[in-house]
Amino acid sequence: MSPVAPLTFAHGPSWRNRLALAPLTNMQSGSDGVLSDDEYRWLVRRGEGGFGQVMTCAAYIRDDGHTFPGQLGAAGDQHSEGLTRLAAGIRATGAVSSLQLQHGGRRADGALGAKVGPWDDDAKGVTALTTEGVEQIVADFAAAAALAERAGFDGVEIHGAHGYLLAQFLDARNNLRTDRYGGDPENRRRVIVEVIDAVRAATGPDFQVGLRLSPERYGIPPADAIDLARQVLADARIDYLDLSLWDAFKEPADPGFAGRSLLSCFTELPRGDVRLGAAGKIASAADAEAILGQGTDFVLIGTGAIIHHDFAARALADPGFVADPQPVTAQRLRDEALGPAFIEYLSTGWDDFVV
Ligand SMILES: Cc1cc2nc3c(=O)[nH]c(=O)nc-3n(C[C@H](O)[C@H](O)[C@H](O)COP(=O)(O)O)c2cc1C
Q1: pTM of the entire structure?
Q2: What's the 132 CA to ligand 1 centre distance in angstroms?
Q3: Which pLDDT value is given to residue 108?
Q4: Which atom of ligand 1 is nearest to the CA of 57?
Q5: Which of 33, 216, 292, 298 has the highest local Cβ count within 10 Å?
């Protein structure tokens, strides 16, 4: 499938092509989660650069989920005005907009509230959520999705990846809860399924709902990740599943799944009208075409879109397009509409990004 082809969904608007901006934490907003001009400019520029969908960074859904300095918030009415401006700005570029909804759980920074998680951890100052506490988390994800819809976003992505709160529930080593949210695999994935249902119930029929999962690491047995994907693809309550693979071409780390690509464990699952996307090391038009050719419906571009605001436009126009390699200069990133806080984060938080 060519990246140029538009992509339709069971709910919400079509994307003009199959290249999506990956969610990218950029630390550019206020300490109160209010959108800054720098964060607005960074994202709107990616819409202008031709992406079919522009997704925000992980935005915290309530104060105790706050994870990064300068993280965008979706935690209440104080965030509405900025989100409304952002949704309108992205829409004006012709891209579909999505707000990524996240709660840091054990990995929250504690800046705005005491840390909570699936289990107690005195050393990290984390208190286990009660059963009612988990139910409240589900309700708070739904409230954040409703806030996004009121602000004019076309959809949200539920962040179930990268070891944040929802992924922490999937951790087979540590989630030994004895209520319905822990213990066996079905219980461990229940919170994610309930969040999907609650988000759907809180939003209208034209609202696009995605889910991001990491199939490896963070204590998640690959077989559990595959079973969860099988379930959410079959349920058809989400519009798309976004697989965060870090390297979309890799083999599974688990020797039990060796000899095939990690991606193929998911593309082979029946999925009806639910779309499947993947992210990780897609750095050229040929890479995008290859991952689409392996049976995905869309691809997400992270690093390549930091380096080229118009990665999408270039890749769609030229099958030979290859993103410039890292590291790049700070001036280059300024020219690509990154503000100082994002450049500082890339310099200090990531290897070999900035010269
Ligand atoms: C600076 C940076 C920030 C990121 N922030 C997020 C985030 O907020 N939410 C998320 O789900 N993934 C996040 N990721 C992961 C990306 O969405 C993407 O999956 C990953 O970078 C692999 O794609 P790439 O090889 O094209 O960069 C981040 C990655 C980078 C490099």
Answers
A1: 0.98
A2: 32
A3: 98
A4: 8
A5: 298
